[in-house]
């Protein structure tokens, strides 16, 4: 094929990661699906080569100066890439954990909403609910004169609100106009003595127009000063009472004031509705919507211990005991306990006094002492974070905004009421609005933009979400589809979109809407490259590239490329599953529960007062359409409350009436697809403790005994046996400023991580570096005579990771590989009674063939007397479960009920279950 063909992206000699010198052409302006087993090289091809090379070339087109400020993409190991167009990556892993990011802010809908409410909203008094009208100058004068006789106050004109700059010109002009004083950041200054302001810091500046005292005969002077303050303050002014019983500022304006309550409101601006701006953010929580507080159950998780035994964890040392001992003894005499009394024998009053203080004895309380400590040294603040929980802000109740912003309404909704509605309801509400007069002209472009953007989110199956939903609470698939909806609104043409499993978290019912969305991007003239395992998406593709035949070093080859009709005839793994030659057979029998966990009156998010029994000793699948309440039930309600019962931190636990049957649960573990380590130092051998056994074997070698080497000698994380030139990394990073950092193999150890003396120790002809380079399969043959080590290696093989190298950096493992390594560590334990495992969408990143392996290892956990709960849409996982809880019937406000519960066969037989229709 002509490599300059503009109708394709031509890749030649791709050897990045495990790719084996691939040469291929990816057709442009088509929907192309890349499939294959986990770890076979799909993401390497799509993201590390196509996307990264497109980004890198764009960045290289910029000046060297500009490149210093942009993230640098590593150059992939590929000979040639031609036919590239600008690339946009929509990955799952980029879901933000910033508590300020919401669905509305990420999609930029919130920016239009702020203008919408600022231009079309009307103030309503937060006290009496009446519409707020403009206040005249005379009314402001009468309000001030009504203050108590003798009250000292200042009249100020707000000039600058939270703006950067030195403002020297402003001060010079005020001085020239004859003014004497200003208030900067709350501090009063003479204009001759104003300190130089920092240029890059935001400042608030108020002009002092007059200083007065309420007494007879001041009316004329007051009226003149009020007029001047309103003129300088652009129809706004501040009455600042000095001293007395009620010092402070009162905001007044000729623009908006309640006639009954005399409450004045600020000017309507878009900034008033921003919880990321001081003008709009709730002052208590600074716009986050929640506050941190010290939780006694985290401070003292083990109620069976006494104070002397370290029952209060922050004081579990002799110094603290000596410091607070005398006061606690005095407290105990009053509340009938000693320092040796177990905490679970404290009366309610004694418990309250211990943690929150007792005035009679002068004991401040554990929580106030910790709060004081948090305000002091930052190091201690970091340490005490483990004893804190978050709860909705007591001032705004989670609304994030000031009361003034919440007092603005369009029709019958304020900003928070609107952003709390589901996107579907919000869209319907906007479409039903009617405006008159000049408001019609203002509303038309805003409504058009808002309805378009909300419509795109409905198209990708997110109609159940609300605009106020925190991004940190979304699944990877939901976050990716939100960004996909944003791209639909951008209208770009000639772009290569690279997506990572957009179907994750999507019920089979909604698959077609997602496929239609991808098609709409492609029809505009874009190339859509999707890494996907979902069968309907693969069948809809124009072109399929299958990487394989297996994972890791057994993959990295193209086993098929071409249209779907040819894939259905191909002798590839995916082709066999699509034809039905291979399939996952459901188990012949279903296990019976050994007990139940009962959750009562669950009202978390959209759950409607649910009573639910979750069986123990079996594998349960919680399913239902997107947004039906699966995560709210399992993660927010069950998991977080179990953590709290075990004295562990769990922010924002769901709202439940009660929980029973948890006495048999000894530990609860959530196994997700997050990396097993954040640095290349972490690897499968260290994570599964296999490396501990290997180091013991090497420490027992004859040469080690002669030299006195202990197991620590064979660790690359500590001094002694590691290469000190690279600190055990095997490579050295060279910073290149505006070019990507270069990693150079360490010249001292040649990338082996250890010093020469350590590498001289061999076991059966192999040194420690050789062993770390072995795959699990090779290690099983090499260490066949070590039963303890073999048991752990066998488990890694059972979960389908025979191809993984023992020392493979954690950062190079896929999400599915990381999850199976976590499961293998649990399977390595002989028995698991009392263990509860929770997995949220575990089939993410797994090929159909690997889903079968996952199901087998989950059943192995249950066979060891554990309980497994899976949140999943995959029909094979649902059919393999012993018990299914199907939530719905719809998403958001249309969900939150249990539609069906029982064995998969009972779900299929239930006509109300949407899920059951896809299991047949």
From TrEMBL:
One Gene Ontology molecular-function label: ATP hydrolysis activity
Domain of life of the source: Bacteria
Record key words, sorted: ATP-binding, Cytoplasm, DNA damage, DNA excision, DNA repair, DNA-binding, Excision nuclease, Metal-binding, Nucleotide-binding, Repeat, Zinc, Zinc-finger
Compartments (UniProt record): Cytoplasm
Stored InterPro entries: ABC_transporter-like_ATP-bd, ABC_transporter-like_CS, P-loop_NTPase, UvrA, UvrA_DNA-bd, UvrA_inter
Any one Gene Ontology cellular component term annotated for this protein: excinuclease repair complex
Gene Ontology biological process terms, A to Z: nucleotide-excision repair
Domain ABC transporter: 592-920
PANTHER family attached to this UniProt entry: UVRABC SYSTEM PROTEIN A
Family the entry assigns: Belongs to the ABC transporter superfamily. UvrA family.
Record-given protein name: UvrABC system protein A
Organism the protein comes from: Pseudodesulfovibrio hydrargyri
Organism classification: Bacteria, Pseudomonadati, Thermodesulfobacteriota, Desulfovibrionia, Desulfovibrionales
